[in-house]
Write a structure and sequence with these properties.
Mean pLDDT: 87
Distance between the termini: 45 Å
CATH superfamily: Response regulator
Structural class: alpha/beta
Shape: globular
Low-confidence stretches: none
Strand order of the largest sheet: 1-2-3
Largest sheet: 3 strands, parallel
Number of strands: 3
């Protein structure tokens, strides 16, 4: 049985959350994390990268993440 977790928040929040999930062994395939972004981040292809010593663990944690980008709709 798998669980789905939907995350909405800043890039820093999502990275910290995923690092915590990784520490708790919650990125072992039993959970899928869906991250909803309204505005694409600057580092859309490397959301785990922060340039610190936790980048490798964050990269592993983000293997359990599905990123969904919400399009901004404008009305004429």
């Amino acid at each position: 049985m798998s669980s789905v977790v939907v995350l909405c928040g800043s890039e820093e929040f999502v990275r910290d959350f995923m690092l915590m999930a990784h520490q708790l062994d919650m990125t072992n395939g039993e959970y899928l994390y869906v991250v909803v972004d309204q505005v694409p981040p600057d580092y859309v292809f490397t959301p785990w990268a922060a340039g610190d010593d936790r980048d490798q663990a964050a990269r592993q944690a983000f293997e359990s993440v599905l990123q969904v980008r919400a399009a901004k709709l404008s009305m004429p």
